[in-house]
Amino acid sequence: MKFQSLFSLAAITVFAFSSCKDEAPIDNTPKFEGSWELEKLNVKVFFANQQFYDTTIATSSTLKYSGTFDGTNFTTTSVDGTDITNDKGTYILSGGKLEMTFEDGTKETYEDVVFNATSLTMAQYDPSKTDPNRQVYSFQFKRK
After folding, report:
1. DSSP-derived 3-state class of residue 143
2. Contact 60/76 with Cβ under 8 angstroms?
3. Rounded to two decimals, what is the model's pTM?
4. Which of 120, 111, 114 is nearest to 65 (CA)?
5. Which CA distances in Å does 131 have to 45, 135, 138?
6. What is the C-alpha separation between 36 and 144, in angstroms, rounded?
């Protein structure tokens, strides 16, 4: 009798666990794909590795920039006063670096790309990150 009770309990336990379906794991990895809107731009100018100029520009109704990325292609919209510019092209995001190639063949490279579900930051260095006489553009975006 004890054996039957123990066997019944074991059978019920096995049945209970085997009847549950395995659910696919939830992917909480932040996605770069989607639409982003510029919140602010910081510009720094260096001469002989000494900071000469530092200012932050916030977006407004007359100064906006946004981009939509779908995995390989992008579209951007720039508003500068009353001028509206739309651009398209392809992009590669790899190792914290974003390279955008526009339809006319020009390229823009952004470094130090960091994003999560709601924000994106990246920088552009002119002429390079290590040049002692450089301009540094730091962009802060929010997800649309």
Report:
1. strand
2. no
3. 0.78
4. 120
5. 11, 9, 16
6. 5
Q: Which two tokens stand for residue 100?
A: 């955008």
Enter the tokens of residue 44. 């720094």
Per-residue burial over 77-109, b if 16 or more Cβ lie within 10 Å, else e, is eebeeeeeeebebebebeeeebebeeeeeeeee
Helices (H), ranges, the chain: 2-18
pLDDT tens digits for the chain (144 residues)? 554 554 555 555 555 555 556 677 777 778 899 999 999 999 999 999 999 999 999 998 889 999 999 999 999 999 998 899 999 999 999 999 999 999 999 999 999 999 999 999 999 999 999 999 999 999 999 999
CA angle 109, 115, 105 (to 5 degrees): 25
* Structure tokens that stand for 78 in this block: 């720039």
